[in-house]
Write a structure and sequence with these properties.
- With 226 residues, this protein is α+β, with helices and mostly antiparallel strands.
- Helix content is 45%, strand content 25%.
- A four-stranded antiparallel β-sheet has the order 1-8-3-6. Strands 2-7-4-5 form a four-stranded antiparallel β-sheet.
- β4 and β5 form a beta hairpin.
- It is globular.
- The N and C termini lie far apart (41 Å).
């Protein structure tokens, strides 16, 4: 697939004409990362924005007691690294490759010029930032209000909304992030996640199949846990 076709897969560029895509692509560089590689480090200086083409990343921060907190999981078509370029502050979080990952990058000047030249790209970016803020608000509410099991359920709902596929009322998450990563998203321990999965399985809410997790009767799960 050519670079332009690859860029069309990134939603915020979806409305650009072929010639506009051509000029944006001309300014981009391709980067590849191995699983586990730290792509961005919290507090470092931001110099590029990244558009994910292949693979998945986690956005993390360290809590004051030294635990990894996962703020979000991103996949193909998502972008990251835009915040520090827009705010002029340092990187707000770490970005770590969860698997072999490929991204296209724009440097600060080209990123800001692209937003100025193409209002549709800017609006697409604002829309995504609004969605991220909404999710953060929901997470803050769930962290302060609920017990660990409910937080895990809410975390599963969030992953299902971002990555799940729905079939006959069931939602499949494939692959399910590791139990430690789910624990870090929900602000709890791996053991609690493992115990909660077992309880949810016994109660018929979920089914595990290897690296997959199927949420049975998603609507019921949604109404019982959110
Ligand atoms: P930046 O601050 O430049 O570097 C870290 C990146 O992580 C940040 O830009 C965003 O792209 C991304 N990021 C930070 N917080 C969140 C969040 N809550 N949801 C999704 N992405 C985030």
């Amino acid at each position: 697939m050519g670079k332009i076709d690859i860029l069309k897969e990134v939603p915020i560029f979806g409305d650009l004409s072929e010639s506009d895509l051509q000029s944006v692509v001309g300014k981009m560089e391709s980067q590849s990362y191995k699983k586990g590689r730290i792509i961005l480090k919290e507090h470092s200086v931001g110099e590029h924005c990244y558009f994910l083409i292949r693979g998945r990343v986690k956005i993390t921060r360290m809590s004051s007691d030294g635990r990894e907190v996962i703020l979000a999981l991103l996949g193909p078509g998502d972008f990251f690294g835009e915040m520090s370029l827009l705010s002029g502050e340092s990187r707000s979080a770490n970005v770590i490759a969860l698997e072999k990952t490929k991204a296209m990058t724009l440097n600060t000047e080209d990123f800001l010029n692209t937003l100025e030249l193409h209002p549709k790209v800017a609006i697409g970016l604002l829309r995504e930032l609004a969605i991220r803020l909404q999710k953060s608000d929901e997470q803050i509410a769930s962290l302060s209000l609920s017990d660990a099991e409910r937080r895990i359920a809410i975390t599963l709902l969030r992953i299902a909304e971002e990555q799940g596929t729905i079939h006959q009322g069931n939602v499949t998450i494939d692959p399910l992030p590791s139990q430690q990563d789910v624990a870090n998203m929900a602000g709890t321990t791996r053991e609690t996640v493992s115990r909660t999965y077992r309880l949810m399985e016994e109660d018929g809410y979920v089914k595990r199949e290897g690296r997959k997790l199927v949420i049975l009767y998603f609507k019921r799960f949604l109404s019982d846990f959110s």
